From TrEMBL:
This is ATP synthase subunit c. Residues 22-80 form the V-ATPase proteolipid subunit C-like domain. One of its GO terms (cellular component) is plasma membrane. PANTHER family: ATP SYNTHASE LIPID-BINDING PROTEIN, MITOCHONDRIAL, ATPASE PROTEIN 9. Its main location: membrane. It comes from the Bacteria. HAMAP family: ATP_synth_c_bact. One of its GO terms (molecular function) is proton-transporting ATP synthase activity, rotational mechanism. It comes from Microbacterium aerolatum. The record marks 67 as: Reversibly protonated during proton transport. The chain crosses the membrane at residues 20-38, 59-80. The gene is atpE. Keywords: ATP synthesis, Cell membrane, CF(0), Hydrogen ion transport, Ion transport, Lipid-binding, Membrane, Transmembrane, Transmembrane helix, Transport.
Length: 82
């Protein structure tokens, strides 16, 4: 039997949801955002160490808002994935 006829006999049944891929792509943005927020906070603390408390508080608020985007992404994946 030649390989082409073997490949022609294979019946592939692909089922699933594209929502998993969508959530994976939706998680990239918040990950980049958190990296930028933390990086800029470290840069600000290096420039003015006396403001570290205020900068860290603002950083945590920024991280919370940025991670909310990831939760929206997973919510949409569950909502439209099934």
């Amino acid at each position: 039997m030649d390989p082409i006829s073997v490949l022609a006999q294979i019946n592939v049944d692909i089922t699933g949801s594209i929502a998993n891929v969508g959530y994976g792509l939706a998680a990239i943005g918040p990950a980049i955002g958190v990296g930028i927020v933390v990086g800029k906070t470290i840069e600000g603390i290096a420039r003015q160490p006396e403001l570290s408390g205020k900068l860290q508080g603002t950083m945590w608020i920024g991280i919370a808002f940025t991670e909310a985007l990831a939760f929206v992404g997973i919510g949409v994946a569950f909502l439209f994935g099934y």
